[in-house]
Amino acid sequence: xxxxxxxxxxxxxxxxxxxLAPITETPTEIAAYLEELNTGALIMSIVHMTGDASILEQVxxxxxxxxxxxxxxxxxxxxxxxxxxxxxxxxxARALDAIAQWQxxxxxxxxxxxxxxxxxxxxxxxxxxxxxxxxxxxxxxxLDGIDRRAPRMNDPEIRSRAGEFPVLIIGAxxxxxxxxxxxxxxxxxxxxxxxxxGVGGTWYENRYPGCRVDVPGxxxxxxxxxxxxxxxxxxxxxxxRAYFDExxxxxxxxxxxxxxxxxxxxxxxxxSSRWLVEVTDGDGNRETLEARAVIxxxxxxxxxxxxxxxxxxxxxxxxxxxxxWPHGLDLAGQxxxxxxxxxxxxxxxxxxxxxxxxxxxxxxxxxxxxPNPGYHAPVGAGQKWxxxxxxxxxxxxxxxxxxxxxxxxxxxxxxxxxxxxxxSVSPANDAMREALTAWIDSQVQDPALREQVLPTYPxxxxxxLQDNGTYLAALQxxxxxxxxxxxxxxxxxxxxxxxxxxxxxxAIVCATGFHADRFLFPMxxxxxxxxxxxxxxxxTNGRAxxxxxxxxxxxxxxxxxxxxxxxxxxxxxxxxxxxVNYILRCIELLLERGYKTLxxxxxVHDAYNRRVDEVNAATAWGSPLVNNWYKNQQGRxxxxxxxxxxxxxxxxxxxxxxxxxxx
Length: 663
Ligand code: NAP
Fold this sequence. Notes:
Elements: H1 27-34, H2 39-50, H3 55-58, H4 67-70, H5 85-104, H6 114-125, H7 131-141, H8 156-162, E1 167-170, H9 174-186, E2 190-193, H10 202-205, H11 237-250, E3 257-258, E4 261-269, E5 274-281, E6 286-291, E7 293-296, E8 318-321, E9 335-339, H12 343-355, E10 358-362, E11 369-371, H13 381-389, H14 393-407, H15 427-441, H16 447-453, E12 465-467, H17 470-475, E13 480-483, E14 487-490, E15 494-497, E16 502-504, E17 507-510, E18 524-526, H18 533-536, E19 556-558, H19 572-593, E20 598-600, H20 602-617, H21 645-651, E21 660-662
Parallel strand pairs: 1-2, 1-7, 2-3, 4-18, 7-19, 8-17, 9-10, 9-17, 10-13, 11-12
Antiparallel strand pairs: 4-5, 5-6, 14-15, 15-16, 20-21
Helix pairs in contact: 1-5, 1-13, 2-5, 2-14, 9-19, 13-14
Residues 212-214, 301, 307, 309, 322, 339-345, 347, 364-365, 463, 487, 511-513, 627, 629 line the site of NADP nicotinamide-adenine-dinucleotide phosphate.
């Protein structure tokens, strides 16, 4: 039996109820709210409120259910966390009692020992977990509210040196704002140069109809700045933009941002060991800014890629790219063609189908999709109530989202060298293919359409999309036509396909992706001895050590750089925090040792990249069976991190000085 009540160094002095709003609802109202809650997180809250862990022996811990296991073998319906309806009812009844007891005790929480917290983590992870895994989770969740990744440059000498180490950050999206927050906390002066007039990066730019994030909002936020107020579980772009904008203002980053200003070039000056960064504003005024270090936070997906199709420029109607949707553009009542069937098209098509007179979907490859009935669902009042008021519920809910995404389906992405099937890369990947095929089959009766929309490449070869059925329903509307014949050319009036047909339209939407393999494009970055980054990378072959540092480019750091994109198994917000932690610790090393620059060793960089390439090549997305934006023109995967997120977290906790040359 797990025991509570042994005070412990780590948690005894922390007020775990800090920030909670008081519960003022009646038991009947509370009972109704409990209906919406995540069962695992609710069990944890019960333990915290009562100080009694006996429930852990009465109900099993939550289980991650993948789409394969979702239809349980016994035929019994399993709810989120793998619980039966009876188990959920039992937990809710216990929660109602626990809340009443806790209120009767004046809302005091019994102290919780560190050992108990460990037991709770183990319970929530489903059993044995390694110690470093516990640390990894504890850092992300921070039950005690202590931001473990905050920089701690407390030595007055180092703090004074920090004040003379100006840093320039390129981009005010998720990564750039985070870097600003951390540099500010460390007392390091910084300027963020942002090409847009506002904060948010990709969430500022992508405003096409239906644009929303496809990971849960409650985990798509900084670990130290949770948002309990998302209106949807998978929030719309504008809400996410507003979140980052609010964080920038709350952490006093906004005043450091130069908006509507673009970095044209950054040159390392060997004589002064400083970066000279040339910027231009919207009016063409140029200026050179100086910095001791440059952090690129430009993202991988921010330069829209128009398709190379003959005659596109001759089209007389409206021509837009999904990533540069003009303000207020409404295509209602028009004949519209959408080119592409990736993540952006998948969200745009159901929206346009509702209002367009005719919609022609020009699909080159179909997408695999995960069944997710809650994809468009609003966050209910009960969930918001619990996030605001129920002790530790919000922490454990984030834990659950984080843990399930981290553990996710990584194994199903790895290729088995002995598996010989063009449709999948391993037996586990094939089981996933069958489950995803069944999801498509459950929605499409027409055999011709089924053949068009059933992917013939392995799952995870391209990004798998979250789906609540709206996409395939849209394709089956009377005003929608799916065309899989290749596009031959565009004329003044529309798109001509390989069967000679002209699809006459008023508007063409190119949902054709981004220049993802051209990192830091189109800036000119010149390092030590006049070496150009573009030449070093031969244009599209971006490589960096840990995706962060590059040989010959002293004090240049990347966030979301080469080989850091996550396909499955992780959270991009967590990865950004790992990268910013690493960058801050590199700067700390410089300040501690009194060096001007650090530069990644070529051999360290090369060895790391060999491992990256080896593992990536043995995944579904690295398979020669697929084309995707993760690969460059030579077929090398330049976008994706091939490792488990915990491994990357370990690699980026602390820089090893031996990996660097200091000047
Ligand atoms: P994408 O995944 O690269 O998809 C581009 C689509 O355009 C593909 O279907 C591609 O076909 C097609 N295409 C490209 N050139 C073409 C041509 N010349 N003729 C015909 N078809 C052409 O781009 P995206 O949809 O913008 O998504 C990019 C990434 O952004 C996603 O993978 C995701 O990471 C992110 N994203 C996320 C969200 C979200 O969180 N919800 C939403 C949107 C985007 P092929 O597949 O045959 O190449």
